[in-house]
Automatic annotation (TrEMBL):
It comes from the Bacteria. The lineage of its organism: Bacteria, Bacillati, Actinomycetota, Actinomycetes, Jiangellales. Residues 1-29 are annotated as: Disordered. PANTHER family: 39 KDA FK506-BINDING NUCLEAR PROTEIN (PTHR43811:SF19), FKBP-TYPE PEPTIDYL-PROLYL CIS-TRANS ISOMERASE FKPA (PTHR43811). Pfam families: FKBP_C. It is an enzyme of class 5 (isomerase). This is Peptidyl-prolyl cis-trans isomerase. The keyword Isomerase applies. It catalyses: [protein]-peptidylproline (omega=180) = [protein]-peptidylproline (omega=0). Belongs to the FKBP-type PPIase family. The keyword Isomerase applies.
Length: 120
């Protein structure tokens, strides 16, 4: 089992496009668009580095269908293999929309580190 990741403060200007970087490349089953995935993740705000959510805090990974998630995850997780760890930097238009959109993370660029534990 992997340990909870520490997310380094990215700094600089937030990207306008989804940034995908593999921190660890897995060798298990590959996640496909629309798959159901079992993941552990940590999410922080790009500008502040402040954590806003983490499955690790709940002590259990989360399973969900990709099509129910923000676009940054729908586009950023496929191609990952089980056992992998990937960092996604997700601009607002692929996360919770522009500022004033009604979600507490609207208008924010988000950084996620995602561990892929299983593909269903």
């Amino acid at each position: 089992m992997m340990e909870r990741p520490e997310i380094d403060f990215v700094g600089g200007e937030p990207p306008s496009d989804l940034q995908i970087s593999d921190l660890t490349v897995g060798d298990g089953d590959e996640a496909t668009p629309g798959a159901t995935v079992l993941v552990h993740y940590v999410g922080v705000e790009f500008e502040t580095g402040e954590e806003f959510d983490a499955s690790w805090n709940r002590g259990a990974p989360i399973e969900f269908p990709l099509r129910g998630l923000i676009k940054g995850w729908q586009d950023g997780i496929p191609g990952m293999r089980v056992g992998g760890r990937r960092q996604l930097v997700v601009p607002p238009d692929q996360a919770y929309g522009p500022a004033g959109g009604g979600h507490r993370l609207s208008g924010k660029t988000l950084v996620f580190v995602i561990d892929l534990l299983a593909v269903k």
